[in-house]
Amino acid sequence: MQKTPTRRERVRAQTIREIKVLALKQMAAEGPAAISLRKIARDMGMTSGALYSYYDTRDDLLTALIADVYGSLADVLAAARDSVPASDPAGRMMAYARAYRQWAITHPDEFRLLYGDPAPGYQVPEGGPAAEAEHRACGVLAGLVVDFGAGTRPAAAPPDGASRTGDTHQWDDFYPRFAEGLRRSFPGLSAETAGLALRVWGRMHGLVSLEVYGHLRTQTHDPAKLYNIEMADLVGSLERAAN
Q1: At 62, which helix (H) or strand (E)?
Q2: With contact defined as beta carbons under 8 Å apart, do 23 and 41 qualify?
Q3: Contact 112, 208 (CB under 8 A)
Q4: E-assigned strands of the chain?
Q5: What is the CATH number of the domain that holds 49?
Q6: Does one domain contain both 119 and 137?
Q7: Nearest alpha carbon to residue 180 among 171, 172, 190
Q8: What pLDDT, in 10s, does the model give residues 145-168?
Q9: How far apart are alpha carbons 133 and 114 in whole angstroms?
Q10: The pTM is what?
C-alpha cells in the first residue's frame, strides 16, 4: 500500500515544482546560463538559504530539470511507439519519429536544455536520475532499430575513407569504433546495429534541430512534409538493410 504523503512532504513537493517552473521561465528568457537560485528565491519570496535546502547549487537544479525533461520525452516516445503493433516495425519507427519532432517544436526550450549549448561549467553527472532518464530515452530508439533485425548492416555507402572493395577490413572495423559509446550503454547491441542506431539518430535529430533553431525558415514553407518524406526514406533504408 502506497503511503499517503504528509503535509510537509506535499508542501516540499509543491515548492520543488514551483522552483522548476521558475527555472524553466528563466531559461526560456535567457538560456540555461541565466538560471539563478537567488533570483528564484526572490521571486518566490524565500531567503536564499531556504532555497538552498532544496538544491545546493544551480547545477543540482539543472540536473533535476534535465532528468525531468528526458523522462517526459521518453514517456512520449514510448507511447508513440506502443500506439502501433509490434508486428509493424516501420509504423512504430514512423510514429516515434513524428512524436519526436512534435515534442521538439512544441517544447523548444526543453529541447535546447537537452541538446543545445549547456550552461558554462555545467556537466551532467555520469550517474543518477539524469543519466538514467537519458538512457531510457535512447533505449526506445535502439530497441526500434533492433526490431528491424539485429546485426544488419545499412544499405548505404561506406563512410569517407572506407571502401567495401578496396579495404574490407577497414569497413568491418568501422562500426565497433563508431558506436563504441552506445554499445557501452547497451551492451546487448551488435556493433552493426549500434552503428546503425547512431546513423538513424543523426539523420532524425539533425533535421529536427535545424527546424527548432530556425534554420529551415528560408528553405521550406512546409518543414513537416520535408521531415515526413525524409523519415519515410529512412525507414525504407532500414527495411532494405534488414533484407
Answers
A1: helix 58-82
A2: no
A3: no
A4: none
A5: 1.10.10
A6: yes
A7: 190
A8: 988 874 444 434 444 544 444 444
A9: 11
A10: 0.83
